[in-house]
Every structure is written in structure tokens, then in C-alpha cells.
Amino acid sequence: MKKYILYFGKYWYLYLLALVCLVIYEVLDMISPTVTRSIIDDVIMDGQVGLLTKLLLTLVVIGVGRVISGYVREFTFDKTSFKVASDIRKNLFGHIQGLSVEYFDKMNTGEIMSRVKDDVDKLQGAFGFIGMMFLQVVIHTVMIIWCMWRISPVLTIFPMIALPACATIAIVMERKLDKVYEEISDEDADMNTVAEENLSGVRVVKAFAREKFEIGKFLSHNKKYYDLNMKQSKVWIRYNPIMQMITKMLTIIALLLGGLKVINGDMSLGSLGAFLEYCSNAVWPMEMLGWLSNELAAAFASKKKLDKIYAETAVICDPKNVKEDRNDDRDPRTESNDENTKISKAETCINKAFSSLEFENVSFTRENKNILKNVSFRLENGKTLGIMGATGSGKTTIINMMLRFYDPDEGRVLLNGTDLKELPLETVRKNAAVVMQDVFLFSDTIEENIKLGRKDSLTDSDINEALESACASEFVDKLEDKTATVIGERGVGLSGGQKQRISMARAFAKHASVLVLDDSTSALDMETEHEVQKHLGEMEGLTKLIIAHRISAVRHADEIIVIENGGIAERGTHEELLAARGYYYKTYMAQYGEFLNELGDGAGA
């Protein structure tokens, strides 16, 4: 709750202005019935007609004052709530961006979207209109009870009984609605997820003629969402009529008892008119209590959802700031030599050019499954390492370790001889340009997608060079807007091979120390793949890590390792692995055996 209170502190001056306007609005509202009493008693009953003009002008001033103060009050509350919501959404999104990949493995996109949009909107209401109305109800109720007490303490007893009764009903209703709202929020997130997945995978759905099934799945969530909203409505209907009856009875009782007091001469007719006007004004806060408690319950449920996200912490994070560690109160002479060595190594690694990437006995387990087991290799600057293996053998996990999406359970990943855990994440990830197996392109222009790794420094010449190296210029140049062409979400509108080539151009344009290709030519035809491999071979001095299923992608690598069941089963050059006649040889024969048999060359080609 503390983090939300800080938003009040940030915009205290705006809230103070809105609160002052709210008080002015309510004070003017309380003065109006006294003017009515004077018109009845002094003008109508006593015949002081000369006062009428003054009293009518007073009503006009009150009306204008209420309009101005009401406008400033509502505008200021709305403006402030939008600022607060913007800050919350910014901080929430920043927190989400800082979470580790592991968090996104267990969370679905629809639920996160629901938290960032719908739940923040609920909090915006609590910080704005809903919060304003709640304050107004409290201030209005206190003022109106005081004004009624001044006219007739006896008649005020009945409103003082009715208000706590309505408040009790509102509290009971809020408790029942709180759970319902949480269920509605969960179901809303689930429904968003189903819709988002369906729309993202609409081509798969249509290809398998699964429209009816997907419609049925969505309708089942829609039905549950409907049932929960009906459950909420039934709670509202059960209690709201009771509140309505109490408020109506309040006016009737005041009229009957007040009328008797006027007949008996204990109260003037004008005072009764003013009291009835106050009674009418006391009704709406009681009617609003149910709705306000409803909305506040929804906002509180949303707060709990956001708190769950804020409670998540990044498993993978930057090491402690070296400078901060050195600026504390410790005597430098007491610092351990190991710590100084560690700092020195980290600073050296950051400042010097890429020299090596090394996996040192790396093991990684996920959900009781061994993904990597005792993997060791070293990739020197300017060299090429090829990695092969069956699907699910752990090849992509090596990239995840290299980018420090995950940390190994055992062993170390070293960059320039320094453990990645001792380096800033930005430093680790800026050293690599990755073409992922699952290509993702943003809904933006081709140019902006290519500039992703170097937004501020990439020139048109760099973009064209990257497109040429990825063999993408041949189709990009044929587009009407060329690199300014806007592609759809996830690259919709492009073929699989075109998306892969744009993704490769993005990686080439980054000019990182290490180029990582994760099965990046799988969607390319053999001729285009050959051209891409040719361009890759011409990139002298570039360090490359190539994961592939095709022999053609790795055969010219300085070293090839074969991953099987998470461990290294084979390693060597292309010729050495063929001679070993293991997994690599069998893959080679499966891909080229028929061609070799036709040539009569055998396996030695």
C-alpha cells in the first residue's frame, strides 16, 4: 500500500486544490436550503418582498459558484488520476520488463495485458472519480447532519439511524462483491488470453478448420464471465432495494413529524422546507454508498493483482554496482583481495574487446528434467562454432545461457574469462546479435525492425548492407515503400523465409561481437541458403555460433559439437565427425546420401 500512497504525495498540490474546490462546492450546497427557508419565512410568510431580489441573486451566485468549483474539482481529480494511472502503468511495465525470462515462461500474455490495462484503469478510478465521490459522500454527510441538527435535533435522529443502517448494508454487500470481483478479474484475464492466442494463431486455426472449436472455447469463457457478472448483479439487486426503501422512508417520516411540529408551532414552515431539502440531499450519498463500495472493491481486487506482480523479483539481475560498493564506509584496507580481484576482472571484461566465450562444465535442470549436462566448450574471437543435435536436445538452451536468460545450476559461462554473473546484463547481451529460431518481428516498418539493435546509430547504408548480406534486398526492393513498408504483427504479410531474412539482417546490422544463428535458415530454399552462407563466410573476423539441423550450415565451422540428451556426444571438424561415423555422420547421410549414391562418391565427399 505504501507505494500507492507515494502517488498522493507526488501530486499533493493538485489533490489539495481539488479538495478545496470540493469543500467550497459542498458549503455552497449547504447554504442553498437556508436561502429557501428565508424565502418561505421572510418573503412569503412575513411579506418582506424587498428581500426577494437579494435572495434570488444569492441563489444565482451559489449556482455559479457550484458550477465553477464543481468543474475545477472534477477536472483536477480527473487530471490527477490520469497522471497517477500513467505513472502506475509506467512503473508496472518497467517492473515487468525487469523480470527474468522465467517469469514469462509461467505467465500468459493475456493475463499480463489485463493487469497493465484493466486493473490500472480500476485503480485510476480509485485515485480519481471514485475516490472523489467517496470523499464527497463523507464531507457531504457530515455537513448535512450538522445543518439538520441545527434546525431540529429531534428530526435529525432518524437520518442518524438511517445512515449507519445503509452503511452496514453497503459493507455487507462489499464483502460479498469482493470475492466476485476477484473471480471476474481472473476470468477477464483468461478470456483475454484465449482471444489473444486465437487471433495470433488465426492461420493455424483456419488451416486445421478449428474455428468452431475455438469459438466454443471462447464462448465457454464468455459464459463463465456472464455468470459471474450475473452473480454480482444478484448481490446488488438483493441489497440495493433495501437501501432505496430506507431513503424513501426517511423523507416521508421527516415530512410527517416535521408537519406536526409546524402545526404545533415548534418549527417554521421555512425550516421544514429547508429540512426536507437537506433530507433529499442526504438521500443520494446513501444510494451512492453501494455503488462506491462496489467500485472500491473492484479497485482493491485490482490492487491485489498488481501487488502479485510487484512481489515478483528478477531471478537474473545485475551484480551490485561496483562504485556503490566502493563508496561505502568500509576501510579499503579491510577489503578482501578476492573481492578486489573480482571487481578488477569485471571492469577489465567490460572495457576490453571480445576475446572468448566459454562454457565450463555447465549443467541446467528445469522441472526435474536435465536440459544440459556438463557441457564445456570455448569459442575464440573470429572462430565459428557449429552446434547440432535432435530437437529438444538442449541446443537453444545454450543460447539462453549465453544471453543469461537463465543461470546454470552447475558450472560457469565465461565472457572474456569473467563469469557472466559478475557482469551487467546489458554488457552481456550487447555482445551478441541473435537470430532466434522463433522469428519475431514488430508491427512496424522493415527499417525500424532492422534498427532494433542500434536505434540511434544505424545509417541507411548500414541497413542496405545488412539486407544485402541476408539476401533480403531482392524482395524488399520490390515492395512499394521498400524499407518503409509496415509489416503486420509478428511479420504477418511476409513468408517464413522472408521473415527469417529480415531477422538475419537485424542481427547483421547490430555488428555485435558474436553472431548467433539458431536454425536461422530452416525456412530458406537451398539456393538462398547457399547465398546466405556465402555472405557469412565473407564476414572475416566475425565470431559465429551456429545452431542448425542442416549440415550445410555448420560444415565449414572451426569446431562442431553434437548435443545429445543435454550432453556433448561428439565434437570435431566436419571431416573428423564424418570419420567417427556417429550421429553427425548419420545426419549427413540422411541429407546427402541419395545425392552421393547417384554420384557414386560414397561418404567421403
SSE blueprint and pairings:
Elements: H1 2-10, H2 12-45, H3 50-98, H4 101-106, H5 109-127, H6 129-151, H7 153-200, H8 202-207, H9 211-263, H10 269-311, H11 322-326, H12 337-351, E1 356-366, E2 369-380, E3 384-389, H13 395-402, E4 410-415, E5 418-419, H14 425-430, E6 432-435, H15 446-450, H16 460-469, H17 473-476, H18 496-510, E7 514-518, H19 526-538, E8 543-547, H20 551-554, E9 559-564, E10 567-572, H21 574-580, H22 583-599
Parallel strand pairs: 3-8, 3-9, 6-7, 7-8
Antiparallel strand pairs: 1-2, 1-4, 4-5, 9-10
Helix pairs in contact: 2-3, 2-6, 2-10, 3-5, 5-6, 5-7, 5-10, 6-7, 6-10, 7-9, 7-10, 9-10, 16-18
Write a structural description.
By secondary structure, the protein is an alpha/beta fold. The protein folds into two domains: 7-311, ABC transporter transmembrane region fold; 345-431 and 561-605, Rossmann fold, CATH 3.40.50. Helices cover 66% and strands 10% of the residues. It has 22 helices and ten strands. The protein has helices at residues 2-10, 12-45, 50-98, 101-106, 109-127, 129-151, 153-200, 202-207, 211-263, 269-311, 322-326, 337-351, 395-402, 425-430, 446-450, 460-469, 473-476, 496-510, 526-538, 551-554, 574-580, 583-599; strands spanning 356-366, 369-380, 384-389, 410-415, 418-419, 432-435, 514-518, 543-547, 559-564, 567-572. The protein has a six-stranded mixed sheet with strand order 6-7-8-3-9-10, with helices on both faces. Helix 2 runs parallel beside helix 6 (129-151), helix 2 runs antiparallel to helix 10 and helix 6 runs antiparallel to helix 7 (153-200). The longest helix has 53 residues, at 211-263. The model is unreliable at 322-336 and 601-605 (pLDDT under 50).
